[in-house]
UniProtKB/TrEMBL annotation, chains A, B:
InterPro entries: Alkyl-DHAP_Synthase (IPR025650), FAD-bd_oxidored_4_C (IPR004113), FAD-bd_PCMH (IPR016166), FAD-bd_PCMH-like_sf (IPR036318), FAD-bd_PCMH_sub1 (IPR016167), FAD-bd_PCMH_sub2 (IPR016169), FAD-linked_Oxase-like_C (IPR016164), Oxid_FAD_bind_N (IPR006094). This is Alkylglycerone-phosphate synthase. One of its GO terms (cellular component) is peroxisomal membrane. It is found in: Peroxisome membrane. The keyword Acetylation applies.
Length: 623, 623
């Protein structure tokens, strides 16, 4: 049981509306907020006012109440009430898992159910820092649960270790600044007393960015931004919103929606990831074709660094004032400071939204179609092409909607026999589509895209399949926890690559994964699958899933890491980038020099050495 | 007469096709060029194989053979054969100039006709550098004409001084590298022997970027990129082109057009400005609504610095690999190195192009219309709104197309009486439009935009007026030289600003200019005019023209500088940026700290100190 104490506000991401609705922008704004501005108080919640760790898993993905499990009948179900899939039986999942991985419900690898606090090192507290911190009134904790919760992201090795109850280096202290000025105070104190600060947003990193460097001897303070989560104002004249960086995606969109707006930024992690995290990692969203990626969305950024606050003086839409310092901040992955406030572009909510799907005879035709859609610059809000394995996987996740049980294979057969005669079930693949905007334009646009698809042998496969594909996006991450209950481990990773290398990279990386697994003694062929998940003028984003049954291996995580490493080498050799949007963290540091050249590394280092000479922001990411 | 010598290739921007068509990308490319790639040899020319300074003015804008003058009949004409306006009489121009500025054809201020070579300081040559340079075979010159030609951009004070025959600090040597490897050699030698290198592309800077710092005691070497101007390959699969950075806009587009492609990057300076210059200054193009600004167009950049070559390893369309080092390069304004090669996105040439124009009752309605077009994200390739003064100015530039002489005022009266009853001729303003793309889509798009315009009182005013507006873009710069023949000096400057400040900034800056001129003793009210020249989601680019009659002032350039300074202060106070696309150079350095904050300055400085610790790239821009 976590130790509450009266003077610690046990906050989870909910902001009580006790603060004045309108606030000056750091006191520096000399003109009154524009009459077109709607000041808001964000009443946001990830929960019903419960601490994060009481509603989220401490050793897995997402909400505690939502998980895949096999019930007493041996059927897969998804618990809870938060998702469309919640409370439903998924009849095909077991068969799919068994056939894909050679998994067996008898072979269990359960996680440690609760955190053993005594496995957590006592905190290394910097007393001088703590003393001054107390006088600021900023909430803090050195409670084991709070520290462990903020000690990790969601890389496989991190979750695997937690499930085994293995706790490595964790933050010594957690602090919850309430606003920009609190962050300024914390950073000043950290510099004064030489503590290591690690900004913590949504905790969804998959680049080992949040791992505490084991060699760090100073006190590590996790700076949790969740309480700085207000929309400070909405500016309807300029279609911008000024937002505190601790806000999470779902709250940002929900609050803007109340005023008829949205940012449209919808990374797969949006239920939990924060605005500050997006800026720090150069995040990308599902609907970037309409709304842009984070670099297209931000108009103004404020970051607190050891040298002081960095911010531009102007909110102009585009400038030539030397190298763009926003681009020194974006992608800095917590190594330079804490992003506190961001002005983002907003758009009126779309009038109309329509999903869709297209079945292609094979992956090559699908890719050619996506390339043509990109060439004609007529991509929908989202267009994603999954390979054959993912198509099958998607079927496996169909919930039971009637009393008639349809086996996975039967359902699959039925799908292709009735609708897609002549399509080889082991080659066909599916693209999911999302259109949004003005209804008339959407329908025109839809026709244009389906016409192009037809030229590549694509057949429309209905809105349902499209919508389901997107809904699954948010539950996929929960599946890994299920796998990990039955000897199956896996990860996703991604890249961006020029168009002419897409097919090669998909084929070669998937084949390399299979080869490496075999070499390393994996007993059952792995799941090695991909999808083209974003299109650009000059290339695409490709997303890989890789998972395998580790039964019989003495060091499964090590095998996993070797295979992932080889996969990344294969990606790079095939002209793919180090990352499209996940970032570098500590996981991919070794390739940085090759990626941006020695001079590029030197530039990043020189900025780091200037901004943070004592490595206060010592998460050791990137460099 | 300039001194030729046999071993100097007197090159002007023309590349003789004696080099192999296909070249390895720096020898590092391990895969063969893709079969879809069309290798090209660029046969480009700014001239008929004559040296730049023999076809371009040494003390004014553009081509020597093209200029405005008043003929024996006192009529304005535009000489030469290069432009649509060439060889034509412009009947209204004289009247407009006389009434707008109180100018008088009797009051002449002619320029020094030729360069007085003895006014040029003898070169400070670094003999050790020169000796090693000679052994490389790279062409060079220390001829006075070559040096003076590359000693300036096109700020008013620079041209004014040249017209008076006043020559300040100029480069001591000019070198013409032929390719990336030549640049590597030059930079190595410069570092070894401590000479100051100033990259020189098209020479169109209007930020004093090309001025040689008078305090520079080392030998200054102008690195003229004009001979590195090939398109190395066109990649039709990825729709990219790999281009040497010395290519100028008109040649790049013409060459790509031959293969059915374009970049669509059309800055007003495109006849002369270079790809490397665009990268260095964060250039913007007229049709950025379709093609993007330079940061949207580049996929890969290679730059030679004192620390070595900086380049990414990958041509992926978008990445998260830390802060984007391309953005350390873009906007560095020649302070870090020489951009040598760039991969740019290309597009198929548009099928169809259509101009248009709309007359609005007043500027406010016009701005509101542009704002709504931006809000609906349906801007044409280009949409520009000029104020009433520019509308009148546009009329003054109408060539005589028939034998019937129509006075300026008559023509104006006729225009508004016949077409735009009820419009106040002293308030109405005009937007020019350019649509391009698929013909059907263009016509649909056009309808949408005119429908919006109608809601703001806008009336379609025909294709001709639109087309003429854009044609005039390329001759406007020649007008300043005419003005300067008759006591009139002036400049353009620009900013970017949020939508809600557009009207204020236009009104306040124009008024401030008028006030300042009066205060400083300018005898005749100035021309103070603006246009909204680009639209964005969150704001617009506003372009100002400012000119006045300086007769009676003892130090006209000083008065000009004071007024310009005040105008920029007014822009900043009204929420405008330091620059949308012209850049900072030396002209706007004083506001950099305020613009990007001290921490931002420190970041730029730290990069500079790392990349170029001995200030080899010593143009003193930005910092």
């Amino acid at each position: 049981m976590s130790g509450f104490s009266d003077n610690i506000m046990r906050l989870s991401g909910r902001m009580l509306s006790q603060y004045p609705a309108q606030r000056d922008w750091d006191g520096k704004l000399t003109r009154a907020p524009h009459p077109g501005i709607i000041p808001t108080c964000s009443i946001v919640t990830l929960s019903d006012n419960l601490p994060k760790q009481e509603i989220m898993k401490w050793n897995g993905w997402g909400y505690s109440d939502s998980k895949f499990l096999y019930n007493k009948k041996g059927q897969a179900e998804f618990t809870g009430k938060r998702y469309r899939l919640s409370g439903m039986i998924i009849p095909g999942l077991r068969e799919w898992m068994e056939s894909t991985f050679g998994a067996n419900l008898q072979h269990k690898t359960p996680a440690a159910p609760i955190l053993n606090s005594s496995a957590v090192q006592p905190p290394t507290l910097n007393e001088a820092f703590l003393k001054e911190l107390k006088s600021t009134g900023i909430p803090f904790s050195h409670d084991a649960e709070d520290r462990v919760f903020r000690s990790h992201g969601h890389c496989l090795h991190e979750i695997f270790a937690l499930r085994e109850g293995k706790i490595g280096r964790v933050p010594d202290l957690v602090v919850w600044p309430n606003c920009h000025n609190d962050v300024v105070k914390i950073v000043e104190l950290a510099c004064k007393h030489n503590v290591c600060l690690m900004p913590y947003g949504g905790g969804t990193s998959v680049s080992s960015a949040l791992e505490c460097p084991p060699e760090e001897t100073r006190s590590i303070v996790s700076l949790d931004t969740s309480q700085m989560n207000r929309i400070l104002w909405i500016d309807e004249k300029n279609l911008t919103a000024h937002v505190e960086a601790g806000i999470v995606g779902q709250d940002l969109e929900r609050l803007l929606n109340e005023s008829g707006y949205c940012t449209g930024h919808e990374p797969d992690s949006m239920e939990f990831s924060s605005l500050g995290g997006w800026v720090a990692t150069r995040a990308s969203g599902m609907k970037k074709n309409i709304y842009g990626n984070i670099e297209d969305l931000v108009v103004h950024i404020k970051m607190v660094t050891p040298q002081g606050v960095i911010e531009k003086s102007c909110q102009g839409p585009r400038m030539s004032t030397g190298p763009d310092v926003h681009h020194f901040i974006m992608g800095s992955e917590g190594t330079l400071g804490v992003v506190t406030e961001v002005t983002m572009k907003i758009r009126p909510m779309p009038e109309y939204q329509k999903y869709g799907s297209v079945v292609f005879p094979n992956f090559e035709m699908g890719v050619a179609c996506l390339r043509e859609v990109a060439r004609q610059r007529c991509a929908p809000a989202s267009i994603r092409l999954m390979d054959n394995e993912q198509f099958k996987f998607g079927h496996a996740l169909k919930p039971q909607v009637s009393s008639i049980f349809t086996s996975f294979l039967d359902g699959l057969k039925k799908f292709y026999i009735t609708k897609f005669k002549g399509f080889d079930p082991n080659r066909l693949c599916v693209a999911t589509l999302l259109f949004e905007g003005d209804r008339e334009k959407v329908l025109q646009h839809e026709k244009q895209v389906y016409d192009i698809a037809a030229k590549f042998g694509g057949l429309a496969a209905g809105e349902d399949n499209g919508q389901r594909g997107y809904m699954l996006t948010f539950v996929i991450a929960y599946l890994r926890d299920l796998g990990m209950d039955y000897y199956v481990i896996g990860e996703s990773f991604e890249t961006s690559v020029p168009w002419d290398r897409v097919l090669d990279i998909c084929r070669n990386v998937k084949a390399r994964i299979v080869r490496e697994c075999k070499d390393k003694g994996v007993q059952f062929p792995p799941l090695s699958t991909c999808r083209v998940t974003q299109t650009y003028d000059a290339g695409a984003c490709v997303y890989f899933y890789f998972a395998f049954n580790y039964r019989g291996l003495s060091d499964p995580v090590h095998v996993y890491e070797q295979v992932e490493h080889a996969a990344r080498e294969e990606i790079l050799a095939n002209g793919g980038s180090l990352s499209h949007h996940h970032g570098v963290g500590k996981l991919r540091k070794e390739w940085m020099r090759e990626t941006i050249s020695s001079v590029g590394m030197g530039m990043l280092k020189s900025v780091k050495d200037y901004v943070d000479p004592n490595n206060i922001f010592g998460n050791r990411n990137l460099l």
